[in-house]
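User: Show me a protein chain along with its predicted structure.
Assistant: Here is one chain, sequence first, then structure tokens.
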Amino acid sequence: MRGRGIAALTAAIAASCALLAIPSTAAAVDYDCGDFSTQAEAQEYLLPGDPHRLDGDNDGIACEDLPCPCSSAAGGGGSGSEAEGPSATPPPPYRLKKKDARRVSRRLVRRAVRRSARLDSFRLKSCKRRAPRRIDCRLVATGKRTTCRFKVAVRARKKRPVPRIASRKCAGLSPHTTKSHRPS
């Protein structure tokens, strides 16, 4: 019996030594950057303390030399598509451009000058922004004996400039007044 006991003890010791020699699957897997095809995939395997040595410069980003899609969060992992989802920042609100306000103001006053028998020409004096989507322009139209001052309000509607004549003040010269005596 003694032989059997010693043989059983030897077998038990050999079996326990064999179990100690075989590492667990978690400890046996060591990842390198070459094991991943993208940076975002490597980022998912970046663990606290970096046991796989995926982050060479300790900045929280694994395998920076791999091609994108890249993870945007340091140490967080992810597919890199965070900016494409509904959490993406909306575009800035539309802002009416002064050049567009000038263009449509000129067009509107040009039409008024063509329809008038007393006016010959016009010029743009100034445009002033009142709000991101509103600009007021001042124009002066002249004729032989008439001067009109226009105020054109331009608003943005559906990302297009829409002008309207806010005010028009016309003054005529008497037939005896010459151009040199014209009030300014």
